Amino acid sequence: MKVFSNSETFDYSWEEVSTANWRKYCPWNEKSTHVIAVDTLSRHVDAETGILRTERLITCKQSAPKWLASLMGGTDVSHVFETSYVDPESKKVTMVSQNLTWSNILSCQEKVVYQPLSATKTQFVQEAKVTALCGGWQKVKNAVEEATVCRFSENARLGKEGFETVLEMSRRVFSEEKLKQKKQTESVAL
Amino acid sequence: MSASLAPECNEVKERYDSCFLKWYSETDLPAEYLRGKGKTDECSALFKDYKHCLTSALKERGIDKMLEDAREDHKENDAANMRRGCEYMAMF
Prior knowledge:
Chain A: InterPro entries: PRELI/MSF1_dom (IPR006797), Slowmo/Ups (IPR037365). The complex is a heterodimer of chains A (190) and B (92). In chain A, 34% of the residues lie in helices and 37% in strands. With 190 residues, chain A is α+β, with helices and mostly antiparallel strands. In chain A, strands 1-7-6-5-4-3-2 form a seven-stranded antiparallel beta sheet. In chain A, β4 and β5 form a beta hairpin. Chain A is elongated, with a radius of gyration of 19 Å. Chain A starts with a strand and ends with a helix. Chain B is mainly alpha-helical and 92 residues long. Chain B has two domains: 55 residues; 29 residues, no CATH class. Helix content of chain B is 65%, strand content 0%. Chain B is built from four helices and no strands. In chain B, α1 runs antiparallel to α3. The two termini of chain B are 32 Å apart. In chain B, 22% of the residues are buried. At the A-B interface, β2, β3, β4 and β5 of A face α1, α3 and α4 of B.
């Protein structure tokens, strides 16, 4: 098993980050192009705690190294199942995900947490556990795990860059929207 | 907004996603949530349409079976994340 961990700070409020997070993989994000689809499978607010629970299916298309691709059966489309929890009271977003494709040879479990550091800063903590399940040589398992962790770190770097763009665009769109609403109320008042 | 894995569901998905995002960004978190006002009801009709389309797409592609197994594995995450005031983490 190999562990990949990463943490970042975004100069945006938790409210902004947790909202923009829902469109992290929209066309504004030109960096995370390996994510080709994001589907919502279920969503509800827990009546007791107010926690918003969402299940999503994330579809990726990414070329793997040739030797790895042949081990994985030659397909480059993969699916990830994600469950997320938004706790509005403690201001915490937790996202847990697991690979669906190739799960007989490789297990990737990822956990991401977004929490406020201050009124204008949000911390992102990511941890991924990669375990090769394929029987046989330890050398092969190590190589599979290493290649996966390497891809994780590459995606994490690009993910941060892409998400920064989404945050910037979200802030701009929201302020434009607010201005429009303000103008409308003003014209009604007149 | 991001696409659906099933192109035929893109249109209904887009409508639902916009509704949800509007609700999420306009809900006064956490006050409205906890007062029970922040229910996702206003988007539920749109979600129903989207889900109807998606369910058959997942079935066609054989993804529904994989999902069932994953859901089973994720149950322990619920135990850790659907309640408050406890820092223990099921996964790590």
